[in-house]
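Attaching the record inline, Q. Sequence:
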Amino acid sequence: MFETFEHTADLGLRIRATTQEQLLEDAGRGLFSMLVTNLEDVRCLQERTYRVEGVATDYLLFDWLNELLFTFESERLLLSEFHVVLDAEGLWATANGEPMDLARHRMEHEVKAITYHGLRVEKDAVGWFAELIVDI
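Structure, as predicted:
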């Protein structure tokens, strides 16, 4: 589960999940929900695979979202479905989506960068919680 929130001139993303893998998957969906208002209309026509190395949970989240943002910026590919597997060195993931089509996709924000400001990832008795700010 994710939600966005306003933060001065930026936009925040807050995620809660039962597992770290689900947290990373929901973070991907949350990022793309900032880009397009109708994420549910993004079809799974293309697949991308990712390998992100790192063991610190906060930096792993940061690097993962940076990879996804780079995919959007370089390929104009909107991603809507994610599958993440963690191992001792980081994560493996697949993401599915389709190229941006302004006739079908309602663009919301231009996300310029993922920031370290307010970045936190925590595990508690309920599961995992993360919060971060993106520059729009």
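Residues 38 and 106 are 6 Å apart (CA to CA). The chain has one domain: 2-135.

More tomorrow.
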